[in-house]
């Protein structure tokens, strides 16, 4: 595991190289205050003060140097100096004219490496000094939670099956004094029939399961976090094409988000009674795979006509949401890599938010803006509820036609949430298709920092 705690340290005046972060609008003014040797170096690099310009600046002594970065990112952006966290040589650094703030997070995440299958880069830690020592612990926890999502999602399905998600929950439980309960295999058939149906075709060592973690004082407000844990999705008998299956190791990205958010809640010791639920399955193909046209029982008591075995995530979430609601939580949040329609609508970086609770919507959207971890609200459009109508059952899992696919998937989930319970659904991509500073291509956490900020504010210590 990456040692983030060694990368952000209190500034006690120890020797460090200086980083000048200059906004393009302030570049000319800054340059005018610099000694001639700096101006000469900048001119030799032919810098004009546009965002992204950078140069190594000479110091007073022969072995002394500083770093210049022209950056138009906001002072509150975690990614303000992330490009330097990934590129500077090992050593100790401090910012010249601005507080570190959220930039410490990007600095650390830029140094995180997924090394399960390759040797790590041996460059050594780049240390950033901060005058705000009180913020270090939380920033480290956010980095660790983000890295958890990335590492879980990046892991190949051969090493990340339902049992491995269970092991990840057990590790968290041991760290924070929580308890884990698991319902596996055929034991799901009566209590969680949709989880059982989706996962029954997998090999015995990849048997489906519902993983539940509980933590906190039962007297505190109860909150539930639910994460889709489809560890690999072939599409089932409605099999995906090879291109569509290529990244389906990431279909447990919702579970990764829920585990990471649970870790933040427990590490911060928020005064809540936490209930984490992960329906963990592999949507495999075998003689006993569930079929198009099958009518599935549910924990809720509804019947579901399965019109598409590749719309399995909403099925396993339905049983998990029902279980979550039985304990009368004050809040349910679910995360799922649920629909391609969400990506078509909003792209990979902007997860759609669905909720009927106006206060919850406002709190989440505000936290997204504040944390620069945005989401975008899409409607639970009641008129589309009729698209879920079935001729032979209470509902279908996937309407024909493909219209409003992210909306109808959210409407399906809503049927399994108790009326009057505050609930939000986040359709996250959990993957970054191209690299950005501090954010490599691969598994990624979306809306994680925002949802934690909302919970920390709502359930303040």
UniProtKB/TrEMBL annotation:
Record flagged with keyword NAD: no
Keyword annotations of the record: Aminopeptidase, Hydrolase, Manganese, Protease
Highest taxon of the lineage: Bacteria
Molecular function terms from GO: manganese ion binding; metalloaminopeptidase activity
Domain Cytosol aminopeptidase: 308-315
UniProt keyword Nucleus present: no
GO terms for biological process, alphabetical: proteolysis
Record PROSITE patterns: CYTOSOL_AP
Matching CDD domains: Peptidase_M17
GO cellular component: cytoplasm
Gene3D superfamilies named among the record's database cross-references: Leucine Aminopeptidase, subunit E, domain 1, Zn peptidases
Protein family per UniProt: Belongs to the peptidase M17 family.
Protein's UniProt name: Leucyl aminopeptidase
Organism: Sphingomonas aurantiaca
């Amino acid at each position: 595991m990456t040692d983030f705690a060694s990368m952000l340290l209190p500034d006690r005046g120890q020797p460090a190289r200086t980083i000048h972060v200059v906004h393009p609008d302030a570049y000319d003014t800054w340059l005018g205050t610099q000694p001639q040797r700096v101006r000469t170096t900048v001119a030799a690099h032919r810098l004009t003060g546009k965002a992204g310009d950078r140069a190594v600046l000479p110091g007073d002594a022969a072995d002394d140097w500083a770093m210049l970065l022209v950056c138009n990112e906001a002072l509150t952006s975690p990614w303000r100096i992330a490009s330097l966290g990934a590129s500077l040589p090992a050593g100790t650094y401090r910012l010249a004219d601005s507080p570190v703030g959220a930039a410490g997070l990007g600095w650390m995440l830029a140094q995180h490496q997924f090394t399960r299958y390759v040797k790590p880069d041996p460059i050594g830690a780049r240390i950033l000094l901060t005058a705000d020592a009180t913020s270090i612990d939380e920033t480290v926890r956010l980095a660790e939670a983000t890295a958890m999502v990335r590492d879980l999602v990046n892991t190949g399905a051969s090493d990340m099956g339902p049992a491995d998600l269970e092991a990840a929950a057990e590790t968290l439980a041991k760290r924070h004094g929580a308890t884990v309960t698991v319902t596996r295999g055929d034991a799901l058939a009566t209590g969680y029939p949709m989880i059982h149906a989706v996962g029954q075709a997998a090999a015995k060592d990849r048997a489906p399961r519902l993983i539940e973690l509980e933590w906190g004082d039962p007297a505190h407000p109860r909150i539930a976090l639910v994460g889709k844990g489809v560890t690999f999705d072939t599409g089932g008998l409605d099999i995906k094409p090879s291109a569509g299956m290529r990244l389906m190791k990431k279909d447990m990205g919702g579970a990764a988000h829920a585990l990471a958010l649970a870790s933040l809640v427990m590490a911060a010791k928020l005064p809540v009674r936490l209930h984490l639920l992960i329906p963990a399955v592999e949507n495999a193909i075998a003689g006993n795979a569930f079929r198009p046209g099958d009518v599935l029982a549910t924990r809720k008591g509804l019947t579901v006509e399965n019109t598409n075995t590749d719309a399995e995530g909403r099925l396993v979430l339905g049983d998990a949401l029902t279980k979550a609601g039985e304990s009368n939580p004050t809040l349910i949040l679910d995360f799922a890599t649920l629909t391609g329609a969400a990506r078509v609508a909003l792209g990979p970086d902007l997860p759609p938010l669905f909720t009927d609770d106006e206060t919850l919507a406002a709190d989440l959207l505000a936290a997204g803006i504040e944390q620069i971890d945005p989401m975008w609200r899409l409607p639970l459009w009641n008129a589309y509820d009729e698209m879920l109508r079935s001729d032979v059952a209470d509902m279908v899992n996937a309407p024909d036609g493909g219209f409003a696919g992210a909306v109808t998937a959210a409407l399906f989930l809503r049927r399994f949430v108790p009326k009057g319970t505050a609930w939000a659904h986040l359709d996250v991509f959990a993957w970054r298709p191209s690299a950005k500073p501090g954010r490599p291509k691969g598994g990624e956490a979306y809306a994680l920092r925002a949802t934690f900020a909302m919970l920390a504010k709502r359930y303040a210590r």
